[in-house]
Structure formats: C-alpha cells, structure tokens
Amino acid sequence: MKSDPPISYRRTPPPSLNTARLEEFAGTVGKRILPGRQFHCMITGDKESQELNRRFRRRNYPTDVLSFPAEEGAGGELAISLGRARAQAREFGHAVEDEVCILMLHGALHLAGMDHETDGGEMAHAEQRWRKKLALPVGLIARTGAA
Questions:
Q1: CB of 14 within 8 A of CB of 43?
Q2: Contact at 8 Å (CB) between 143 and 126?
C-alpha cells in the first residue's frame, strides 16, 4: 500500500520551484527527524498563512511556518507560506527551496516536541546539528537569535 506524499501544494507550484527536491527533503524529515510518526507539510500562500496564524495563534499577519502537532508522539502537520519563503530566501541570499527546507526542519523540530521559546537552547542546538547534517544554510533560530 502506497502512503500519501509527505508534502502537498494548495496551488499548482510555479515551474521554477524544484518540487522533487522539496518532496525528497520532506521524506528525509519524516524518516530521520520524525521516525514512526505521521508527518505532512502543506505549501500555501501568505493569505492562508495569515488566516491560520490569526485563528490558531491570535496573530494577524502571515508567517513563514506553522506547526500543528498531533497527539503526543504522533507527528503532525506543517503549513509553510511560499510567499514568506521567497522573501526570506531573497533576504538571506539562497534558493527558495533551501528556505522551504529550513522552514520544514524548524517546523518538524516543533512537531518532535521542541520549543525554542522555553527549552533553554535545546531546539537551537538541534536545528544547528540537523542543518549541518542536511547541508542547509543558517536556520531560523540562528538568524533571529531566539533561543
């Protein structure tokens, strides 16, 4: 039985977006960071990101990645704004696919139960370790200085 793909797109992605790379990365995240757990990543736009952020976090602006953990240890879902990813990729001088992967890694660590706002740097260290293993540019926590 074939399982559902770990990534889906709300709109048809632009031809310039390397969806094969993103899907491969999502598979890697599922196997290596969230083994044995259900994991899905939805690529959406700023409008839906803002609506989700408003509904679930009471913050009325589009955000780059939102994590929706499932029951304890069961994985969960991510929502990544392609618009935010594009803007951040330009700002930090790397490919949009790299930025989506950075966001996916960050969100997956949240799904694994980590929280950089309360864990005294544990998630920041994990993100840095995984970023190096997965050959990604500087991650979210390092860029913002939030730990």
A1: no
A2: no
